[in-house]
Specification:
twelve-stranded parallel sheet; 25 strands; mainly beta; single chain; disordered N terminus; 3 helices
Length: 296
Amino acid sequence: IEGYADIAGSVTGNLVVNATTAVEVVITYGAVNVANINAGSNGKILWRVANTTELRSALAYPAAYNRGVVMAADCYYNAGTPGAGGNIDQQSAFIIAKSDAEQAIRDYTGYIFDGGGHTLSGSATNQVLICYTNDAIIRNVVITSNGLNMNGLTIHRSTGVKLNNVSSINNGKAGVIINTSEVIANKLSTSGNGWGGVNVDSKNIANAKFDFSDGTSTFAEKAKVWVDNVSAAMHTVTVPAGWTFSVNVRGQEMYHPIGEISPGAIVLNGESYATLGAAITKAVSGDIITIGAGIY
């Protein structure tokens, strides 16, 4: 249960938020002097933001009084040129828990990013939005680079992340990158992404997990969900009933509904083959070898 208290306009003097069970405080603000905010022992503020400037400011507020953000409008930011080199601020248009990026202790654990049904877009070297903290909740948002050569959403070295009613569309690379992270998705949708929907990648560092087994997520691309670094055996993908996976010619696990052929897949009598030659050798007269889009 979340209760909202709105304070309109600028806040002056001291703002004291007392810890209250299961209640979030939302401030619609003009200019808030964050130095004068006292969130008490456990009270944190869920910031309602009206534009890009407010969003980027609120994302950077210290964890001590930063429960999360709620967007009240579409937001766009240009942080850098896709594909170019850059520091952490240029790699992403928007950052959840920047200070948690390389920490063992995640100060922003449980952070809420609520898009309020609005669109988050931008330009950067790598992605529109990145999450660096555990148990984050990202919900009710459309994420897009509007066709630029970058990813939509990246979850980086974070566990317990939940995606709820998130759309990542029209990105030049992947809709979602799960980078050595653990993610559960509900009503996730991807479409129009150049590489495909969701890339699960352990980077040979730590286990990567993706669970969309409730069956509410949709992926319009031919490459719906795929795993790199398969040989590392450091990944777990939990799928809905009626889904399976095949290994394509690049050694990637491609997850898809049963009966659908993913890009690069070679299938004979329900079995996947690593090379077209191997399938031909195994086939007998009258067999049909089905191949996905690709170069062989």
